[in-house]
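User: Here's a chain of 108 residues. Predict its fold as tokens.
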Amino acid sequence: MKILLARVPAARFPAQLSWRPYRSVGGLKGKKNGELLRAAEVAGYDVLLTVDQGIPRDNDLAGRKLSVILIRSRTNQLEDLLHLFEPILQALRTVQPGQAVVVPFPEQ
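Assistant: Prediction complete.
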């Protein structure tokens, strides 16, 4: 499973995902949501992991090879994202192509 990270702190968070191939947006940076989804599919990514709320809302994922895991977090800072590590792993295990899965921030 190839994972593309968008608006997720790639420098620190993915160390936790070291058993999976991942990459931050890097060369795809600056692309609009629909463009990013198309470019990610062409590049062979299976999952887009993001905190960008607009991607699944503004784009129809039906028929796509790519799935989106949307992280609902207070921020995209590592301290907030680490609370979601296990639910993100669960979503990665169950997500299907063309599907959007929301990982909500745990209520305190």
